[in-house]
Write a structure and sequence with these properties.
The protein is α+β, with helices and mostly antiparallel strands. It has helices spanning about 1-5, 10-35, 45-50, 55-60, 65-80, 145-155, 155-190, 205-275, 285-300, 300-310, and strands at about 85-90, 95, 105-110, 120-125, 135-140. The radius of gyration is 58 Å and the shape is rod-shaped.
């Protein structure tokens, strides 16, 4: 089955067109997803208003209990703004600390968020410590925008539409491209089997149409030429047969002429020998010389009859 599919041009064109169409559609989808505008549901200014009261709250909180307040506030921000913002806490040197333990550093610097949409940075300190910290909210870049979410929700439907659209377009494209080629292939096989009665008119003006029309014209000319050759061959066969008949008549004529010549010559030879040796009745030379002359006259009429027969042949 696979071998048969590999040998079919229409199947190859169909599969190749299907893959190319699907690839183009999904590539376009990816570019649209990447180039989609970053539309978020909430503005960063709304979240900034939530941080205004925090410095005063931290100034009344001891450092060891700060994680309770930070975790609670981070969870509230995440729930309130649907995970569009993230809370970050930094030391005075810009090193980020964990929200669950302000004494534990995490892998991050305040400079890492220079290009990220964020609120104003608020300086805070604790009731039992003079160390300064920086608090701010940043846009959660891992959160999909509204446009991206809408595009991703349409992905199953889009995949179905692209699949069926690619199949339909690939089918009609392969049919349009390979239909005249199939006709050309069928006509060429007929021509290879010396059958020039096929037709191959694609009705197109492109290169495939020109090839189809040219092959059709060639088939018609070869058919006419083959018909002329067959007629010439039949005529030649008739001429050969006629020549054989003439040759047969010549052989029969010469055989008959040889037989006619042989008998009188034998008689003349016998009479001359009898007269020469004066045997019996041949002593009367005058009589048998006259007979020999008569036989000779008979022989002289044979060439005239031969010419007449040859003329008739």
């Amino acid at each position: 089955m696979i071998k048969k599919m590999k040998s079919r041009l229409s199947v190859k064109v169909f599969l190749l067109t299907l893959l190319l169409t699907a690839a183009c559609c999904f590539t376009t989808y990816s570019f649209i997803l990447q180039a989609a505008p970053k539309n978020y549901q909430y503005d960063i200014e709304d979240a900034d208003l939530e941080l205004v009261f925090l410095p005063a709250e931290f100034s009344r909180t001891e450092k060891e209990y700060a994680y309770i307040f930070l975790e609670a506030f981070s969870d509230w921000i995440e729930e309130q703004y649907e995970n569009e913002f993230e809370l970050h806490f930094f030391q005075a040197d810009g090193q980020e600390v964990s929200l669950h333990n302000v004494d534990r550093l995490v892998d991050g610097q305040i400079t890492d968020f220079e290009d990220v949409e964020k609120t104003k940075a608020y300086a805070v300190s604790f009731a039992d410590s003079d160390s300064l910290y920086t608090l701010l909210l940043t846009r959660n870049t891992a959160k999909l925008t509204q446009t991206e979410e809408a595009i991703r929700r349409t992905l199953p439907v889009l995949c179905t539409v692209v699949l069926f659209g690619s199949i339909i377009s690939a089918f009609f494209y392969s049919w349009y491209l390979t239909a005249p080629i199939k006709k050309v292939s069928r006509l060429s096989r007929q021509m290879a089997e010396m059958d020039f009665g096929g037709f191959c008119l694609a009705g197109r003006t492109d290169e495939i149409g020109v090839l189809s029309d040219s092959l059709h014209t060639l088939s018609r000319k070869l058919e006419a030429t083959l018909s002329e050759l067959q007629e010439a061959n039949q005529k030649l066969q008739a001429d050969i047969e006629r020549e054989r008949q003439l040759e047969k008549q010549r052989v029969e004529f010469f055989a008959a002429a040889s037989h006619e010549l042989k008998t009188p010559i034998t008689i003349i030879k016998g009479q001359l020998q009898g007269m020469l040796y004066q045997v019996g009745r041949y002593k009367d030379r005058e009589t048998y010389l006259a007979q020999s002359l008569e036989i000779t006259d008979t022989l002289s009429s044979v060439p005239s009859r031969q010419k007449k027969c040859e003329h008739e042949i």
